[in-house]
Design a protein that fits this description.
about 75% helix, binds phenylalanine
Length: about 450
């Protein structure tokens, strides 16, 4: 098979940092703690860990192998492995559509975060006498500010993409990921040294299965895929940038460990502080923008500093993830014959417009649509909970049942250079049976439970 020329990541460290940059994002620091709070703390954490290591990591390995083997973006990668057959394009198409939708939501929330960072820096976040709830709704309902901050964020990502895969994406990830770890650790220390912190740890680690239910299980699955950036083709694109010498299986383990570690550390940075202030942990999506400012406010000492550090952490994590979504769409257009610069700019223009439309839905009373959910809830539900599991299911079925096993072993062993004797069992049990059956079951049961 003729392999398209790609400039890719320089070495294994670059691969792990760039992919961890994609994986660690709003999903770990904004979404994970609040859904963990909604679905029973430790109970959710347990199910999430099982899904992330058994299903998420399996998907990561599938997508990386498909990407590196073909050196193509998702839509062309799947048919290329079957010697044509346009039906296989569907898997990539579902992925690209999901990416397109997710990026618009992602940009809006990243814009909020950037605004909160700015307001912590200038102190205006704490100068409002009306309370943080009103502050947040007032900000989201503003017709200009959220759009402006979203556009700044989008431009930052575009600049990185225009610098290229190695000099842009890889370099910034190598810089930001270690910085992120330091930031989250500083916040953990602060949170754990507050009086009554232990209650927060108990909440995070003590399982309350009563609150989990089928929806919680579906949310855990959706979160494990979303958090590892799988089920939408992003890791196929990053896979196409992996050097031939890299040990894919080892990189997958490192990326998953980094991703889980940051999510758990974010929980440790947030819950003890929330409990210590006597606040509610299950505030949903507003946990970070409403409850946390209140927590920082109650510190008395270092309020602005800690708020600034937190929103900086969240903005930087979101940046490398948004870049990976932007890059996926750019690579798809390049694969269709466009040049990289116009492709990246086109994606920015389209996403900027869609994200502005999403941001504007917050300006009025958002009407509740079918099944008591708003437009935003539906977008979030589809892009984080339904479409990625569908794309993941198709990917794992393709990998386990339609790709030649010899090709897979050849790819993962670097053409026989690495010993992966144990892979046969993993392939037979997890790839072929456990992952597809689990994805299918959770998808059906969860959807039945969700749409009552
Ligand atoms: N993994 C990212 C997060 O946790 C989100 C993301 C999903 C990024 C899919 C790229 C592709 O925030």
């Amino acid at each position: 098979m003729a392999k398209a020329q790609h400039n890719g990541f320089s070495n294994s460290f670059g691969v792990v940092m760039a992919a961890a940059g994609s994986a660690v994002g709003l999903g770990n620091i904004w979404r994970f703690p609040y859904i963990c709070g909604q679905y029973g703390g430790g109970a959710f954490l347990l199910v999430y860990l099982i899904f992330v290591f058994f299903i998420g990591m399996t998907l990561l390995m599938c997508e990386f192998s498909i990407g590196r083997r073909t050196r193509r973006a998702p839509v062309k990668a799947y048919p290329a492995l079957r010697g044509g057959g346009n039906g296989w394009k569907l898997i990539g198409v579902v992925g690209i559509v999901t990416c397109f939708m997710i990026l618009s939501i992602y940009l809006v929330i990243s814009g909020w975060t950037l605004n909160y960072f700015w307001e912590s820096l200038t102190g205006s976040l704490f100068g409002d006498s009306g309370g943080f709830d009103t502050h947040f709704t007032g900000f989201a309902a503003d017709s200009m500010r959220p759009v402006i901050f979203m556009l700044i964020f989008l431009l930052l990502g575009l600049v990185v993409i225009l610098c290229g895969v190695k000099n842009g994406i890889e370099s910034i990830s190598k810089l930001l990921m270690p910085l992120l770890l330091v930031l989250v650790l500083v916040l953990c220390v602060r949170s754990l040294t507050l009086p009554g912190a232990i209650k927060g740890l108990d909440y995070l680690f003590h399982p309350d299965f009563g609150k989990l239910g089928p929806q919680g299980v579906l949310a855990a699955l959706g979160q494990s895929l979303f958090s590892l950036s799988v089920g939408m083709g992003t890791m196929v694109v990053y896979g196409s940038y992996i050097p031939e010498k890299d040990n894919i299986l080892k990189s997958c383990v490192w990326i998953t460990v980094c991703d889980v570690a940051i999510a758990v550390l974010a929980g440790i940075a947030i819950f003890p502080a929330v409990f210590s202030c006597g606040l509610e942990p299950d505030k949903g999506a507003g946990l970070v923008y409403v409850v946390l400012p209140e927590v920082f406010h109650s510190f008395g000492f270092g309020t602005r500093l800690f708020a600034m550090l937190f929103f900086l952490l969240l903005s930087l994590a979101a940046l490398t993830s948004a870049i990976s979504l932007h890059e996926t769409l750019t690579a798809f257009l390049c694969d269709c014959g466009m040049k990289r610069v116009p492709a990246a700019v086109l994606v920015a223009v389209l996403e900027g417009a869609l994200a502005a439309a999403v941001a504007i839905t917050f300006t009025g009373e958002t009407p509740e649509t079918a099944a008591d959910r708003t437009f935003f809830d539906w977008m979030d539900y589809l892009t984080a909970t339904v479409l990625p599991p569908v794309c993941a299911l198709l990917t794992v079925l393709f990998f386990g049942w339609f790709m030649k096993k010899e090709d897979i072993v050849d790819e993962l062993s670097n053409h026989g250079k690495l010993k992966i004797g144990w892979f046969g069992v993993y392939y037979k049990v997890l790839v072929r049976w456990v992952a597809p059956v689990a994805l299918l079951l959770v998808l059906i049961l969860g959807m039945m439970g969700y749409i009552k």
